[in-house]
């Protein structure tokens, strides 16, 4: 997914994910929608949209709505799944909701696909067992003891 030296950066991935979320809610996205959602300026959005259009991630015409292409939608779904798996893993590890959300948002852009695959399988395994595995309960007890010791 590289064209004319343009790479899909973390920032561009965030735009793809934001456009996807807006599309799911409204059917299509506008520069104004993206600006509000991401808290960035309209010129920044326009620049990113032009780069994503060059990469064939979106269909974009000035002053019109923005829609993900099939490749863009595929990338967006991948990013959402990465984020969800990472956040769920972090929550299982006893990380608070706000920190898990922020960390998952950062990590999703750099983690290797094999790592995500393994984390996802681990989360699915832990959640699918009828009872928490003994080692998982011991880990949670270990965390509680460590928290008390810090206080």
Explain what you see.
The structure is a single chain. The chain is mostly helical. It folds into 2 domains: 10-68, Arc Repressor Mutant, subunit A (Orthogonal Bundle); 76-150, Diphtheria Toxin Repressor, domain 2 (Orthogonal Bundle), CATH 1.10.60. Helices cover 70% and strands 4% of the residues. The chain has 7 helices and 2 strands; from the N terminus they run H-H-H-E-E-H-H-H-H. The chain has helices spanning 10-26, 31-38, 42-54, 70-92, 97-107, 113-128, 134-150; strands spanning 58-60, 66-68. The chain has a two-stranded antiparallel sheet. Strand 1 (58-60) and strand 2 (66-68) form a beta hairpin. Helix 1 (10-26) crosses helix 2 and helix 1 packs across helix 4. The longest helix is centred in the middle third of the chain and has 23 residues, at 70-92. The radius of gyration is 19 Å and the shape is elongated. The protein starts with 9 loop residues before the first helix and ends with a helix.
